[in-house]
Amino acid sequence: xxxxxxQIADLLNGSVVGNPATQVSNFSKIxxxxxxxxxxxxxxxxxxxxxxxxxxxxxxxxxxTPSSAISATLIKVPNAYSSLAELFNLYEKSKAKKKGIDxxxxxxxxxxxxxxxxxxxxAYISDNAxxxxxxSIYPFAYIGDNVKIGDNTIVYPHACVYGECEIGNACIIxxxxxxxxxxxxxxxxxxxxxxxxxxxxxxxxxxxxIGANTTIDRAVMGSTKIRDGVKLDxxxxxxxxxxxxxxxVMAAQVGIAGSSKVGANCMFGGQVGIGxxxxxxxxSQLGAQAGTxxxxxxxxxxxxxxxxxxxxxxxxxxxxxxLPEIYRTIGRLEKEIEELKTNKK
Length: 345
Description:
Blueprint: E1 3-4, H1 5-12, E2 15-17, E3 23-24, E4 26-27, E5 37-41, H2 47-50, E6 57-61, E7 73-77, H3 80-94, E8 100-101, E9 106-107, E10 112-113, E11 118-119, E12 124-125, E13 130-131, E14 136-137, E15 142-143, E16 148-149, E17 154-155, E18 160-161, E19 166-167, E20 172-173, E21 178-181, E22 186-189, E23 192-195, E24 201-204, E25 209-210, E26 215-217, E27 223-226, E28 231-232, E29 237-238, E30 243-244, E31 249-250, E32 255-256, E33 261-262, E34 267-268, E35 273-274, E36 279-280, E37 285-286, E38 291-292, E39 301-303, E40 308-309, H4 310-320, H5 323-344
Parallel strand pairs: 4-5, 5-6, 6-7, 8-11, 9-12, 10-13, 11-14, 12-15, 13-16, 14-17, 15-18, 16-19, 17-20, 18-21, 19-24, 20-25, 21-26, 24-27, 25-28, 26-29, 27-30, 28-31, 29-32, 30-33, 31-34, 32-35, 33-36, 34-37, 35-38, 37-39
Antiparallel strand pairs: 1-3, 2-7, 22-23, 39-40
């Protein structure tokens, strides 16, 4: 399906610079642009590609001013990256949605399936599970006993939702994710570790996305809670009784230990590690590989392990590579001081 530059501009409340009749039917990277595609420029370091790209249309920010001629038609918008995301989402929604229940799927007699759902081949829906309207449960997904899933939620292949867990509306659970496995709870007694039954569940809010192979453990008692709007990347571990606040985002390999509370609107880079039983304040930002074992105040920006304020970390990082030289210098100075003391005697 083709769209003109003017149609796209009208959709995004943008303005056309060039030929408004230019047509596109697909997307491309700016450095790999092909005729008939639309691309974008948001990061200035990619600007040089806009003068050579073969893409037919380029989304740019309103404040973009070219330094030489551009063959592509431009669409100026307030934010090129978010406008591209909007187009992606519209394109995704235009795809035909799977519906119907495959004959090889297992659905317990006591389960409830809403209207307009898709249940793929060999999916397993357990006793008393409740699936809302317009959900998609892909092949080989497992939905445990008494699970509740809201409307318009997607559970991709091989994802597992253990019994008693709850998932809200418009969520996306990617392949291999495990929701509600036992938390890591053991009591050390007589030189052995005895398992502590994990009697709680996981409660996930609305518009939450859980990445592939991410795990969210059930609570010992009560609930592990993932609030509305949270976005979790692939390969993240959320331990038992953790609470994650609204609209917090975490990149790959983040690990949150048991009973910690993460505030709203936080941003964690990859491999951030959070110790147990601590609180991370709202709007905190932790850079990649930051590690912390103590409470963090709201609006903090930290890096390093142990995590320290970003400005201090950047200053310290300049010194790290000089440490061997500094060590040798200190050794030499200590030796000179000892020689001075000896000569003075």
